[in-house]
Amino acid sequence: MHALYAILLVMTVRAQLRELIVSGALDAGARVSEAELAARLSVSRTPIREALACLDGDGLVDAAGRGVRVRTLSGDELIAVYRVRSALEALAAEAAAASQAAGQIAPAALTDLDELAEQTDAATRAGDLESAALLNRAFHRATVVLAANSVALELLDRLWDRIIVTTRSSLAAPARADEVDREHRTLVARIRAGDAPGAASAARGHVLATLEALR
């Protein structure tokens, strides 16, 4: 029982630390000690240390003395992450469209995609960039959920965490808001039509266009 409790505690602490990092409560590039984190979460340093080791493996922190530093991606690393993301999201979009063609996706799931695209665009145009970033991630995650590929979903969640941490401080109104909204709508339309090659192309093109805008 004690061993099980210790495992569950580490999992809980890991989730709490991940949320602090991804939400921006811990600044990107900032160094924080194990003692500080233990005090903040009201736990001992042992589960903190074990949870940080897991987050190191996720690429979210780097060891820094007796603490860690919230890791950000270099320009070259961000390019590499986006290219991997484009391949995974294309794979997922293709699978989602194939499932739609086979009649395996509920209409409500596609309606949810439409609503997320609408909410993302509305938040962007209202200048609520923090909400827009979260909604954009939710939109892309929802397309991957339709693919029913748990491995792709897990990998993309980890990539998205690293992207959010690196780009949060540079949030700005996108210069191509119209294009982003149109690309989102095109992706949904091709999934709805059961067009697997078209959905893959739309997903890949959208992610790579976003990368070019970042660069």
Q: What is the tally of helical segments?
A: 9
| N-to-C span | 51 Å
Taken from the alpha-carbon principal axes, the silhouette is: globular
Rg from alpha-carbon coordinates = 19 Å
CATH architecture of the largest domain: Up-down Bundle
> What proportion of the residues form beta strands (DSSP E)?
5-15%
Description:
By secondary structure, this protein is mainly alpha-helical. It folds into 2 domains: 2-70, Winged helix-like DNA-binding domain superfamily/Winged helix DNA-binding domain (Arc Repressor Mutant, subunit A, Orthogonal Bundle); 75-214, Four Helix Bundle (Hemerythrin (Met), subunit A) (Up-down Bundle), CATH 1.20.120. It is built from 9 helices and 3 strands, in the order αβααββαααααα. It has helices at residues 2-22, 34-41, 45-57, 75-101, 107-125, 129-145, 150-167, 177-192, 196-214; strands spanning 31-33, 61-64, 67-70. Strands 1-3-2 form a 3-stranded antiparallel beta sheet. A hairpin with a 2-residue loop joins β2 and β3. The longest helix is centred in the middle third of the chain and has 27 residues, at 75-101. The model has no long low-confidence stretch (mean pLDDT 91).
Provide the descriptors you would attach to this structure in a database record.
215 residues, mainly alpha, Arc Repressor Mutant, subunit A, Four Helix Bundle (Hemerythrin (Met), subunit A), 2 domains
